[in-house]
Amino acid sequence: MAGIPPGRSAEHIEVVENTEGRYYELRVDDTVAGLLVYEPAGSRRVLTHTSVDRAYRGRGLSDRLIGTVLDDLRDKQMTITTYCSVVERFLEANREYQDLIDVAHPGISARNRPQAGGHSPPPAADQPPTQPPTQPPAR
After folding, report:
1. How far, in Å, CA of 92 to CA of 108, rounded?
2. pLDDT-based confidence at 10, cuts 50/70/90?
3. Region 48-52 average pLDDT
4. How far is CA 112 from CA 39, 61, 85, 103, 107, in A?
């Protein structure tokens, strides 16, 4: 058994979708080790939160969870909107998934990518401007 430390067996890792709960579950040996939460929006999934239990961190399991979810969504011919910084970092490191981002509804992906012409997009309505206004607001 190369690659498995003595006294330890190979772990069974799987990712399962819970459509009623609107999340994907990362299971390690039948224990829930992580979640990727989403909201359905027609043929799009809005990815809102990813977490991995502290006991399972540092093992690349969030990448495995996100990659498996994105592969599943691609197989279902769905697009994504992401408001999860963990998913956003994964997308930056794994450019082969960029085509899944919904162009009309990219989420935080729009804030992190330059628009045509090399300019960053303006902040979303719920985000503060990056520079203070030049004049104080009228009273």
Report:
1. 12
2. confident
3. 98
4. 21, 24, 11, 13, 10
Q: Around 18, how many Cα atoms within 13 Å sit in the side-chain half-sphere? A: 14
List, in order, residues 6 or more apart from 137 with CB less than 8 Å away: none
Distance CA 137, CA 139 (A): 6
Is 44 strand, coil or helix?
Answer: strand
pLDDT band, very low/low/confident/very high, at 5 (cuts 50, 70, 90): very low
What's phi and psi for 52, nearest 5 deg?
Answer: -130, 130
pLDDT digits (tens, 9 = 90+) for 89-98: 999 999 999 9
Domains and CATH numbers, the chain: 13-112 (3.40.630.30)
- Residue 92: its pLDDT value, please? 95
Q: What angle do CA 85, 88, 92 make, to 5 degrees?
A: 140
Number of Cα atoms under 13 Å in the Cβ half of residue 120: 9
The per-residue DSSP string of 54-95 comes to: GGGTTSSHHHHHHHHHHHHHHHTT-EEEE--HHHHHHHHH-G
